[in-house]
Write a structure and sequence with these properties.
Elements: H1 2-20, H2 24-42, H3 45-57, H4 59-106, E1 111-114, E2 117-120, H5 121-194, H6 200-225, H7 244-263
Antiparallel strand pairs: 1-2
Helix pairs in contact: 1-2, 3-5, 4-5
Length: 264
């Protein structure tokens, strides 16, 4: 079965090479990319949203793991700082003692008394050399530990910043997915409302029927209220003549009297 698949694959590759020559790989890559895009476009949006939510949830173990590492590092750095503090106190005491013995020897005395006990100058010199060697070793230890604490504090700060950035990114992703889900919900509502289709022809026929009824009623009203004389009958009533000039005079004369009354 495997051999058959290899033969088929080799034949397909050979066919592409024969048809397209050096561009065969480009055509194959484009085809794969288009196929992948087509498959992605056909995946339901609800499934993609749920997939995004699950991917965001998968960040929780990584965040929790980094939080544990950071908490452990904080405890260890705190312990190193306590050790460093003790060594620095010891180093300061050593420095005072070395400087005291060195200062005493510079006086040139043959004997020295410390804590009620007498020592020759050679003994003090030997003790000073031993103390000074221990002091230099202690100073080297303190310097090294200071560098270690500084480096680990820098690493801790970087880890804390990375954790904060990851937590902020997770929160932003959750907000983005929530917004996308709300937008898609609105699209679903709009699509469902667009599925309601009305027969406009039925509405048009109903409107036309109402207009026809109104027309018939109007015609009937006009026939009832028609003020026309029977055919051939003599009209005995004279039509009143209309004098526009008299009407204008009466109108403005009436306005003038109203103005006079208002002035009084």
């Amino acid at each position: 079965m495997v051999k058959k698949s290899l033969y088929v694959g080799g034949a397909a590759a050979l066919l592409l090479a024969l048809l397209f020559g050096g561009d065969a790989f480009s055509y194959l890559k484009t085809g794969v990319r288009n196929t992948r895009a087509a498959v992605t476009d056909n995946i339901p949006i609800e499934f993609q949203l749920e997939r995004a939510r699950n991917m965001i949830k998968d960040l929780d173990p990584e965040i929790a793991r980094n939080m544990r590492i950071i908490a452990k590092e904080e405890v260890e750095i705190c312990g190193l700082k306590e050790d460093l503090k003790g060594l620095e106190t010891k180093l300061a005491k050593s420095e005072r003692e070395v400087l005291r013995l060195s200062s005493d020897l510079k006086r040139g005395d043959s004997t020295f008394v410390y804590a009620g006990k007498s020592y020759k100058a050679e003994q003090v010199k030997t003790d000073l050399e031993n103390r000074f060697n221990r002091h230099k070793a202690l100073k080297s230890t303190v310097d090294s530990l200071q560098k270690v604490v500084s480096k680990r504090e820098q690493g801790l700060t970087a880890a804390q910043e990375k954790l904060s950035a990851m937590q902020a990114a997770k929160g932003q992703l959750e907000a983005d997915v929530a917004e996308l889900a709300a937008r898609y919900k609105m699209v679903e509502v709009a699509q469902s409302s667009s599925n309601f289709k009305f027969d406009n022809s039925v509405l048009s026929r109903a409107q036309e029927t109402v207009r026809d009824i109104g027309t018939r009623i109007k015609v009937a009203e006009n026939l009832v209220n028609a003020d026309t004389a029977p055919a051939g009958e003599i009209n005995l009533e004279e039509k009143a003549t209309h004098d526009i000039t008299e009407e204008v005079t009466r109108f403005f004369h009436g306005q003038a009297e109203e103005n006079i009354v208002k002035l009084d």
